[in-house]
Amino acid sequence: MSAQRRRWGFHELDSRHARELVRSAGVTAGDLVVDLGAGRGAITQHLLREGARVVAVELHAGRAQRLRERFPDVRVLELDLAVWRPPQRDYRAVANPPFALLTTLLRAMTADRHLVQADLVVPSFVAARWSRGAGLNRDRYTARTVRLLPATAFTPPATQPTAVLRVQRREGWPC
Fold first, then answer.
1. From first to last of its 175 residues, what are the pLDDT tens digits of the chain?
2. Torsion angle of the four alpha carbons 38, 46, 25, 75, in this order, in degrees rounded to the nearest 10
3. Were 36 and a residue from 21, 84, 97, 168 both cysteine, which residue would form a disulfide, CB within 3.0 to 4.6 Å?
4. From 3.40.50.150, 3.10.290.10, 1.10.260.40, 3.30.428.10, which CATH number describes the 3-169 domain?
5. Domain limits of the chain?
6. What pTM, to 2 d.p., does this model score?
7. β-strand pairing of 154-155 with 12-13
8. Contacts 24+ apart (CB under 8 A), 27-34
9. How many CB atoms lie within 10 A of CB 48?
10. What is the 3-state secondary structure (H, E, C) of 94-124?
């Protein structure tokens, strides 16, 4: 394993689990969906099959280029998720983001009114903490663990228990 791969901790979600993640997120045609840490497009391909308008964010230059070649209709942003800013219109996020940036991403997404729903692959302890409301603006959003994922859902297999965390804008907000 290369030093770069170890540093980034790249664990790609397999196609079956990526398809189930997108299906359970309820993505529909025309939805604006952000795939944070898109990698090689495991989730992106299923978002496109549902008819979503996809923005894929990927730091690794080679992977970003492959995303552009593989998915010409996807807007690919080659940048560090630590500096990514959410769209200024309603959007969803369906992603397997880098675990090291989860707090930064969750805070950025829930800081305003534009996030409709995020379905994110996260360590189980993060899902439990956010489901209890830690770090969450409870007036605006709810959070819950949707399901647990087996280590074998990833290549290479996950080194810690993982779950899908759903963060959802509260009904009727903003007024």
1. 333 443 456 889 999 999 999 999 999 999 999 999 999 999 999 999 999 999 999 999 999 999 999 999 999 999 999 999 999 999 999 999 999 999 999 999 999 889 999 999 999 999 999 999 877 777 899 999 999 999 999 999 999 999 999 999 998 765 4
2. 50
3. 97
4. 3.40.50.150
5. 3-169
6. 0.92
7. antiparallel
8. 27/52, 27/92, 27/94, 28/52, 31/91, 31/92, 32/87, 32/89, 32/90, 32/91, 32/92, 33/91, 33/92, 33/93, 33/94, 34/86, 34/87, 34/91, 34/92, 34/93, 34/94, 34/95
9. 17
10. EECCCHHHHHHHHHHHHCCCCEEEEEEEEEH
